[in-house]
DNA sequence: TACATATTTAACGTGTACGTAAAATCCGAA
DNA sequence: TTCGGATTTTACGTACACGTTAAATATGTA
């Protein structure tokens, strides 16, 4: 029964998220952030815990290269599960609960697969780069090059 | 002294790369693929080993989320080093060789840092997803839910 | 209550990475 | 040599993820 926690304006909120207000409104427009029911032209306000949600959006965007629509679908399902968790035993349809959970599991599994695929690619790329780096360094420190470098130093 | 190896048209080449001819021309236009010196309206032709280059472009694009301009800079430097490797001991300026190598090393190091950063993020995301998945599965397989599920099964 | 500053909606603009269409031209097989 | 499909250049179009501007309105402070 707490009074509404400290809520901040879109400027401070966006700054806390490391984005611009435009981005926040854009996310709301695309259904990634909850659209508040505010009276005509009333200003938006945010609780600080929503920052995590924006950070998660950026995470999925930069790390997995997903579109905002992809991300929205993930968030929607996560929200459903969160709701389910709150209403734990009071939910009307038990079948619905089960199905939402199953959907969440399927989606999360798919996400994990994508993550693992990326991981594989990244590991390969990492190895390639390390090999390349070692090769360059070998060339650089090669005696024939060292002598050249000596010549280059003054 | 081999005669020019089997060269293929842009259609087959693009297909081998898993992209469209438009993409190939676009990459050439942006300096990611060598612009061939062909007479007026002569058709482009490609040797199959160039496929690797396009695959590398896609790799950096999808795994690191780099822009084509970023990728171009990397490729240009790699090309310089490759050239250097060919001319190994016949290069005019030894200082130039050293500087190109040093640039390549710096750039590769920077790439590695970016890769490692992404890797960290991915590992974190992976862990989050695994935890989430386990949580969902626990909820689903919870006895209170199992009984609900039993009710749902006809 | 006056005022400075922040926020609002609406609309158009931007950069990236291509897609698509059209008309001319090229190239290889018959 | 002729013909049909592939390729050429040119140019406009598109999807995404915001940026920018402008005019009106809201909000916090003196």
From TrEMBL, chains A, B:
GO terms for molecular function: DNA binding; DNA-binding transcription factor activity. Gene3D superfamilies: 1.10.1660.10. The keyword Cell division does not apply. It comes from the Bacteria. Residues 7-77 form the HTH merR-type domain. Pfam families: MerR_1 (PF13411). Keywords: Coiled coil, DNA-binding, Repressor, Transcription, Transcription regulation. InterPro entries: DNA-bd_dom_put_sf (IPR009061), MerR-type_HTH_dom (IPR000551), MerR_fam (IPR047057). Residues 98-132 form a coiled coil. This is HTH merR-type domain-containing protein. It comes from Sulfobacillus benefaciens. The lineage of its organism: Bacteria, Bacillati, Bacillota, Clostridia, Eubacteriales.
């Amino acid at each position: 029964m707490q009074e509404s926690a400290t809520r901040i304006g879109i400027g401070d909120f966006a700054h806390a998220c490391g984005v611009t207000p435009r981005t926040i409104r854009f996310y709301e427009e695309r259904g990634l952030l909850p659209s508040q029911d505010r009276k005509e032209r009333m200003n938006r306000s945010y609780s600080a815990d929503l920052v995590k949600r924006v950070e998660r959006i950026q995470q999925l965007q930069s790390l997995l290269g997903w579109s905002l629509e992809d991300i929205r679908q993930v968030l929607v399902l996560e929200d459903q599960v969160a709701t389910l968790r709150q209403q734990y035993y009071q939910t009307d349809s038990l079948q619905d609960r089960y199905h939402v959970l199953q959907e969440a599991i399927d989606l999360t599994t798919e996400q994990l697969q994508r993550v693992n695929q990326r991981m594989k690619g990244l590991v390969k790329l990492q190895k390639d780069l390390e090999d390349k780096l070692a090769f360059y360094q070998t060339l650089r420190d090669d005696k024939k090059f060292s002598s050249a470098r000596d010549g280059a130093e003054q």
